[in-house]
Amino acid sequence: MSDINKEAISILNDLIETSIDGEKGFHTAAEDAKNPEIKAYLLSRSSGCKTSVAELQAEVRALGGDPEDSSSIAGGAHRLWVNLKSALS
Prior knowledge:
3 helices; Ferritin; elongated
């Protein structure tokens, strides 16, 4: 595998991780939304992120790499904080 492919795979995997964070973050926010329009909007954004993840993962595979399939530690910690904050308010 060329160095260019390795660099591209690394960048794409970073984007995948960020997109997974977005997907889960929008989904978590939708769970707490009371307004049906806002809930629908947040779920739509979550779905869009999920689609992006699948497309980015396909590109990583096409370049001969192993695509990322999990969110970042920072994203998980942020979702935990949002859930805790929501539970307390």
